[in-house]
């Protein structure tokens, strides 16, 4: 994690909304602030639907969502342990454990041609088989994670896979996959991202009728 970003977070007192309650019997009320922002020296504004900062007893309190958006460092609260989590989680969560939706050209597969890789049988993988045009999926990290690590390869044609923040249409990462047995492992910053649009393209003509077989292994994970 970038130490400058950590330092920026450490000087802020963060809240999850515009009112802080220390106990059921002792609530502290705040006043909405018209605070303006600069990011790396330049004027900056959070998303239009972001929570507003508040002033309590003369102290500015900044919404966690605003800090996440500005610094790209995820900040979440584990209600079961009453713990504020900043950045990557110590324990990774397999990609296949979180929700994913697929169109007809992409989905889970147990086909031995795709799940056997470098002498290992992964039993099941996310596959876009024989892609001539494009295949589409949606992953749902639900703003809980800092990073998505994908282990991915293509058989047949050269391919491109794009990861996009569905809410903002911001490109998170584009990966070019060369055919063969080479595995590409790539980290994607998903801080503050609820839905990830995944689009697979074949980058070669269809004349050989092979298409691109793009495989995301179950070793892929969030953290």
TrEMBL record:
<protein>
    <recommendedName>
        <fullName>Copper amine oxidase-like N-terminal domain-containing protein</fullName>
    </recommendedName>
</protein>
<keyword id="KW-0732">Signal</keyword>
<feature type="signal peptide">
    <location>
        <begin position="1"/>
        <end position="23"/>
    </location>
</feature>
